[in-house]
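Re: Re: ligand-bound prediction request (bumping)

Still looking for help on this. To restate: I need the protein modeled with S-adenosylmethionine bound, output as structure tokens. Inputs repeated here so nobody has to scroll up.
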Amino acid sequence: MARDSADSRSSTLADVRSVYADQAATFDRFAALNRLLSGRYRRRAFDTADGEVLDVACGLATNRAYLPESVAYTGIDASPAMLDRAADRHDDLVLGEDLREMDAQDLDFPDDSFDTVISSLSTCTFPDPDAALAEMARVCKPEGRVLLLEHGRSSVGPIAKFQDWRADAHFEKHACRWTQEPLAIVRRSPLTVRNHWTALFGILTGMEAVPE
Ligand SMILES: C[S@@+](CC[C@H](N)C(=O)[O-])C[C@H]1O[C@@H](n2cnc3c(N)ncnc32)[C@H](O)[C@@H]1O
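Reply:
Sorry for the wait, this slipped through. Here it is.
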């Protein structure tokens, strides 16, 4: 993987697929712990989603449990390994239909397709986060919303220092820029942030945005 400054390391889609082919079993094994730690934040970020919902970089489709039951769910991810495990975990989601292999940076949906576009903990892994956010804006209906839950550098000094210290190693293992500033990235995209909140020592940022 290419090495640049701390927050601008870049990977390729092939890197992402390779990392998550290795990591899918670990994500699966620790799914319950993940829900325990992140569930309340996922609910806060996504429980107002409605209508046709697209989950971009859905991973194991963990977010589905935190959406209202009334929504129609579609998840896309670049990693076949993650999608296989998502399908195993959700009997009613059909691989290739409700769960589709796709690049977030080049979504295979027409403009204005979804009432709500959601994404969690993934902007940091997109090789080109600007392209992915522009695609989320494009496929969201003009009156729809984009709901994001992202992580970044903590606002608490010692935690941020630890993140800085481990940033390279973390990127090598997870293809994840964990010190990047999510709000800044979304603000330079074709989305307008209406509301945002932070949690977990400033590591998590929830955002409600609308297409410009
Ligand atoms: C840290 S996981 C998060 C998964 C899930 N959103 C969650 O909150 O549990 C990051 C996910 O982003 C996916 N990903 C990274 N780059 C992608 C891209 N360009 N297109 C689609 N998925 C991508 C990975 O395959 C992986 O499943």
